[in-house]
Design brief:
This protein has 374 residues and is mostly helical. The protein folds into two domains: 137 residues, Orthogonal Bundle (Farnesyl Diphosphate Synthase); 211 residues, Farnesyl Diphosphate Synthase (Orthogonal Bundle). The chain is built from 16 helices and two strands. The protein has a two-stranded antiparallel ribbon with strand order 1-2. A hairpin with a 2-residue loop joins strand 1 and strand 2. The two termini are 27 Å apart.
């Protein structure tokens, strides 16, 4: 039986059922609200579903190692509930994407217009008064906030089927921590984009790594693992093993994303080439480039910095910055970091006492994370 495929089918069905219910409720208030749900549901139809899969396989991996032994009936009920938990993580992720695209002023997501651009187009098509751009901002803020609320609702409904109150409480604690940490990371990311020029270049890599840890690594990999394991009743030692596996993998995941944001194929990534440079993203890749250029050629570092902060780059300027990143050695160093972090993650997984079949699935997921091209 293909458990991953079955899970993803249940997750999509849960999300579709939930959105259909919201559309009906919203339409009863006003037909003008229908785009709010339609744009949400459209965004939820894509994606790699890594968070859902890591959550599910952590649950499976921790079941046999749990001090709380569930009956066959309880496990069957938990199987349905974990799909709801996984769906809530996908809703939360989509909400974060809505806000992230708005903060970065990124026009596309998965090859389609970002949510704020969809509201902007709606305004233009209807020839409404006022600014289409401001309407787009307002619409995306509200949709992102709404999706955050919906993720909590789906999560709470799934936890109604928790085996016991202790497990329910542990899952809620992990979910709450995830929400706080990703917001902290998001703010640090925005801060770095605006304050980096006033701070020491030699500290840029460390600051970028902290952003990665809180904005991506914890919420994309560690939190889904710990939430899934908590739903199985995992003890602290087991949870710690998932952290040791998840954190380096989550950092590698974002480092790969940083490379794709500069050198990725638009037809595969769904984003324009060099989009991270155009948005002025202060990634580890960029920090390594500036650090190397500052040591070798301060004038070239100044040129790179000036282009990075301009936010209006043409194709030739993007190509020039890509060349500097490669020649500085930053690209090669980032690739080495991904390999080292991936190896550390897999070593932690291998040395854990988790169920073997689930470990194999988690290993396969980890390899996809570090070797992906989108």
């Amino acid at each position: 039986m293909n458990y991953s495929k079955n899970l993803l089918g249940q997750v999509q069905a849960n999300l579709d059922t939930f959105c259909d219910k919201q559309r009906s409720d919203f339409e009863a208030i006003s037909e003008d609200l229908i785009p709010v749900v339609d744009y949400t549901q459209s965004l939820l139809e894509g994606g790699k579903r890594f968070r859902a899969l890591f959550c599910y396989w952590a649950w499976k991996a921790a079941l046999n190692d749990s001090s709380y032994h569930q009956s066959e009936q309880e496990i069957n009920e938990s199987e349905m509930a974990i799909a709801g938990i996984a769906a809530s993580l996908e809703m939360f992720h989509a909400a974060a994407l809505v806000h992230d695209d708005l903060l970065d002023q990124s026009d596309t997501r998965r090859g389609a217009p970002a949510i704020h651009k969809r509201f902007e187009s709606l305004h233009k098509d209807k020839q409404w008064a006022g600014s289409p751009e401001r309407f787009g901002v307002a619409g995306s803020v509200l949709v992102g906030d709404l999706m955050l609320g919906w993720s909590s609702e789906i999560f709470g409904n799934a936890l109604l089927h928790s085996p016991n109150r202790e497990i329910e409480s542990a899952c809620r604690d992990e979910f709450s921590l995830m929400r706080v940490e990703v917001m902290a990371g998001q703010y640090l990311d925005v801060l770095e984009e605006n304050a980096a020029t006033t701070r020491p270049v030699k500290e840029g890599v460390g600051r970028a790594e902290k952003v990665i840890l809180y904005k991506t690594a914890k919420y994309s990999i560690e939190a889904p693992l710990r939430i899934g394991a908590s739903f199985a009743g995992a003890d602290q030692a087991t949870l710690n093993s998932f952290t040791q596996f998840g954190i380096p993998l989550g950092i590698a995941f974002q480092l790969r994303d940083d490379i794709l944001g500069v050198f990725g194929d638009p037809s595969v990534t769904g984003k324009p080439a060099g989009d991270d440079l155009r948005e002025g993203k202060r990634t580890v890749l960029v920090a390594l480039t500036l650090e190397a250029l500052t040591e070798r050629s301060p004038s070239m570092a100044d040129s790179f910095e000036e282009l990075l902060t301009s936010r209006e780059l043409d194709t030739q300027q993007i190509a020039f910055m890509q060349k500097l990143i490669q020649e500085s050695g930053a690209l090669e160093k980032t690739e080495r970091m991904i390999i080292e972090l991936g190896d550390r993650s897999l070593e932690a997984l291998q040395s854990s006492n988790l169920e073997e079949n689930a470990k194999a699935e988690l290993k396969a997921l980890a390899l996809k994370v570090v070797n992906r091209d989108a």
